[in-house]
Write a structure and sequence with these properties.
The chain is mainly β and 98 residues long. It has one domain. It is built from no helices and nine strands. The protein is elongated, with a radius of gyration of 13 Å.
């Protein structure tokens, strides 16, 4: 299982948080949008994935994101990221191999 956690603090994200799970090996991709913080798990088949989390911080708020699961190697560039109050818009990429 691959778990994606996104926590928005300091208010509500002004636009939906968009997640794209891009299977690099084929066209079987998954994408979804959420209005609020979330924790979701997916049973992804073996392969290489580029997981993108993008959105907009609330004014004065921040967004924390974390990717976890049973990976062949740790997520690159890191398994988690925090987008602080100094950055309004964000798009964060996580490369994983399952």
């Amino acid at each position: 299982m691959t778990t994606i956690e996104v926590e928005v603090t300091g208010g509500v994200s002004p636009i939906p948080i968009k997640v794209v799970i891009d299977n690099i090996n084929n066209a079987e991709d998954l994408s979804f949008k959420r209005a609020y913080s979330f924790i979701e798990s997916y049973a992804l088949p073996p392969g290489e994935y580029l997981i993108t989390v993008s959105g907009m911080n609330p004014s004065g708020g921040k967004t924390k994101m974390k990717i976890s699961g049973d990976f062949q190697q740790d997520p690159e560039p890191a398994a988690s990221a925090t987008i602080g109050v100094d950055q309004r818009f964000y798009s964060k990429f996580f490369y994983v191999k399952i």
